[in-house]
Write a structure and sequence with these properties.
Elements: E1 7-8, E2 11-12, H1 25-28, H2 33-45, H3 49-56, H4 64-76, H5 80-92, H6 100-109
Antiparallel strand pairs: 1-2
Helix pairs in contact: 2-3, 2-4, 3-4, 4-5, 4-6, 5-6
Length: 111
């Protein structure tokens, strides 16, 4: 097997293990609340809220979008009191946004 040098601007670059590029973002940045929110929301969007909720609980609770994501996750998992709380918090802390109409609908569904 012939090994090829990886060069950039005339310098040899260090070789990385192939799995480094495929490493889970949460492993690379375990304390990043934005990554926690994104990962949790992906699970919620795939109707896997039970898996996503622990990630959402690690995200920034002062962020209205995070509260919306938590509210939807709580609706999916049947935790309606928590859903109401999170959705009300989300709507109180947000200006009109791409998700506010959906948040209002979700809140109305658990009233």
């Amino acid at each position: 097997e012939q090994r090829r040098e990886v060069m950039h601007e005339g310098r040899r670059l260090p070789r990385q293990k192939p799995d480094v590029a495929r490493q889970h973002p949460r492993q690379q940045h375990p304390d990043d609340p934005t990554i926690a929110d994104t990962l949790g929301w992906i699970y919620v969007k795939k109707n896997l809220a039970k898996t996503g909720l622990p990630y959402l609980l690690q995200a920034d609770a002062t962020n209205a979008t995070v509260q919306y994501h938590r509210g939807v996750a709580y609706v999916q998992t049947g935790q309606l009191d928590e859903a109401r709380r999170a959705l009300k918090t989300a709507l109180a802390g947000s200006r009109e946004s791409s998700w506010t109409a959906d948040a209002r609908k979700a809140l109305a569904s658990v009233q």
